[in-house]
Amino acid sequence: MPRKIMTTNIQILRDENLSVYPEFDQHRRVVRFEDSTSGLVGFIAIHRERGPLSTGGTRYVSYPNEADAIRDALRLSRAMTAKCVVSGLPYGGAKGVIMARQGGIQKSKELLAAYAGVVESLGGAFRTGEDVGMTEQDVQILLSHSNFFNGKSDIAGDPSPFAAESVALVMDRISQLHLGVSPEKLRIAVKGIGKVGGALVKILAAQGANVSIADVNKDALEQVRGLYPAIAEISPEEIAFTDSDIYAPCALGNEVNEGTIDRFQAKMLCGGANNQLADPRFAKILESHNILYVPDYLANAGGLINVSDELEPDGYHRNRVTERINAIGTLAEKLYLSSRNNTRTFLEEVEEYVRANV
């Protein structure tokens, strides 16, 4: 049921205004939207138009200012194009960001309805769904106002377990090649035990890995520790820099930045968070420190693979989702080995693959 936009202002941002941001990559379309009644403010960035549409989740996050929100949308939408390519999906990348207002306007049904109207106004060019700060319940509200949302509760549902599944699979394949052993014999530090990180911890614990965790949510920590008493708890400020075999960032991005780049002690970084590198050049610096960075959009592609299967002409099929997630593991192995032969970083090899197939 499309919602008529009565109080929402939608503005297409011009390239000359966007070019000041280093994340701008000749994006096809970037819009700013604001709804005076609900308090909705945010941006949608469409990076590339491949096939019938562009796709990517929508996040509800508190940003210090609009510039930071724009930069996040630009960066994430670009990564979504890459994620579509490595997943074998014929779509372009896009991203929606809604600016959460701390202590002010909350994520109300009215705000969600207004956002659904914005997405509806794009006429199907942007298909979106759940991301950070959004819930499966939010998606069902959005779907009551627009059909251009993925993640129907009775079909694909929550993408998080599938993102965790692909992270665990890629971690397994690459650790065997890079470290010579599989994760069940390794020490793995997981930061962020929300929907993706929590699901990843369950997989790793079932494999018998030596897992340590960190999160700011004490209830989540108690729940995981109740299920797995052997799991160690480390402070969120320190877990990234502990002596582990694999560090798995599963919270927010920019974990690897100027202030942290020299502090990591893990042999490999592979997690579910998006935009783990504040700058792509940090992948080369990490490898100079004998730390392998596994590109986040390769590792966590399972979530996209799951929800986007709703877009297939014959409808959602769980077996096809499983096949495509398994294919991510195979592709990760292939690109890792070719990166060693070509003396490139793993990230450079994956980026070259994306450029050749976009």
Count, helices: 12
Helix content: 25-40%
Contiguous low-pLDDT stretches (5 residues minimum) are: 1-5
Q: Return the CATH class of the largest domain.
A: Alpha Beta
- Beta fraction: 15-25%
- What is the fold named in CATH at topology level of the largest domain? Rossmann fold
CATH H level of the largest domain: which superfamily? NAD(P)-binding Rossmann-like Domain
The average pLDDT is: 93
Q: Tell me the series of helices and strands, N- to C-terminal.
A: EHEEEEHEHEHHEHEHEEEHEHHHH
Number of domains: 2
Q: Name the overall outline.
A: globular
Number of E-type strands: 13
Largest sheet: 7 strands, mixed
Q: End-to-end distance, in Å? A: 34 Å
Give me the Rg, rounded: 20 Å
CATH architecture of the largest domain: 3-Layer(aba) Sandwich
> Helix- and strand-based class?
alpha/beta
Q: What is this structure, in a nutshell?
A:
With 358 residues, this protein is an alpha/beta fold.
Structure description:
This protein is an alpha/beta fold. It has two domains: 8-80 and 91-143, Rossmann fold (3-Layer(aba) Sandwich); 160-301 and 330-357, NAD(P)-binding Rossmann-like Domain (Rossmann fold), CATH 3.40.50.720. The protein is 40% helix and 15% strand. It is built from twelve helices and 13 strands. The chain has helices at residues 15-18, 66-86, 109-121, 136-143, 160-178, 195-207, 218-227, 282-288, 296-299, 302-308, 318-341, 346-357; strands at residues 8-12, 29-35, 40-46, 54-55, 58-61, 92-99, 126-127, 187-191, 210-214, 232-233, 246-249, 268-269, 292-293. Strands 1, 2, 3, 4, 5, 6 and 7 form a seven-stranded mixed beta sheet that branches. β9, α7 (218-227) and β10 form a beta-alpha-beta unit.
